[in-house]
Amino acid sequence: MTPGEKWAWVLSHKQRGGQRFGKGDIWGAADCYCRAVKLAITLNSKTRRKPVDEASKDVLDEEDDEDDDAASTPCFEKENEQAESPDVSIPTEEEYKTVKAELHCNLSLCQLKLGQLGKSRDSSIKATELNPTSTKAWYRLGQACLQLGELEESRMAFGKILELQPDSASARTALKEVNSRLKDLDSKLGQRLSKMFN
């Protein structure tokens, strides 16, 4: 399978996952996103360096130069014409990272809904590493950590959302819940310590 074909399958699985999620088939959606992630991993070093517009312009410039050479050389033939043109079916590095981050983010939501909290946290972490400005990924990381009882990590994730989107009401509400739980935890710990030393 060529890199272009693999990329087409990645996008197809991503789209199918979204459709299944929309119909309430969380397991099916998670399966589609997992398949897409596995295929995307095989494309790790097979991305284009330039967006299509820039790459096409470079190829056109090269062809113009070659046409000038052809005018002076009567028996000129273009060799490897296909090798020079960019394969537009292969993603750029930026497209690859964006789609892979979205896949991990969507997979994280499925895992959260399926009660796979550790996996959801791990998928969210991967999404935030690929796209540190994704508020959805940070929110899902915060939710997973909150449900796992990892309150400091949850507070950090919701705090990151407020750095990116200061007016996010859902992040403010979630952060209040985390801070309330941390306060209760500190209070209970204080009571236990006082009982130990009395």
Describe how the helices and strands are arranged:
Blueprint: H1 3-22, H2 26-41, H3 52-72, H4 81-84, H5 93-113, H6 117-130, H7 135-148, H8 151-164, H9 169-197
Helix pairs in contact: 1-2, 1-5, 2-5, 5-6, 5-7, 6-7, 7-8, 8-9
Q: Summed up, what is this model?
A:
InterPro entries: FKBP4/5/8-like, TPR-like_helical_dom_sf, TPR_rpt. It holds the Pfam family TPR_8. With 198 residues, the protein is mainly α.
Description:
Keywords: TPR repeat. TPR repeats lie at residues 135-168. InterPro entries: FKBP4/5/8-like, TPR-like_helical_dom_sf, TPR_rpt. The protein has helices spanning 3-22, 26-41, 52-72, 81-84, 93-113, 117-130, 135-148, 151-164, 169-197. It has two domains: 3-48 and 87-197, Serine Threonine Protein Phosphatase 5, Tetratricopeptide repeat (Alpha Horseshoe), CATH 1.25.40; 53-86, no CATH class. Residues 63-85 have low confidence and may be disordered. The protein has 198 residues and is mostly helical.
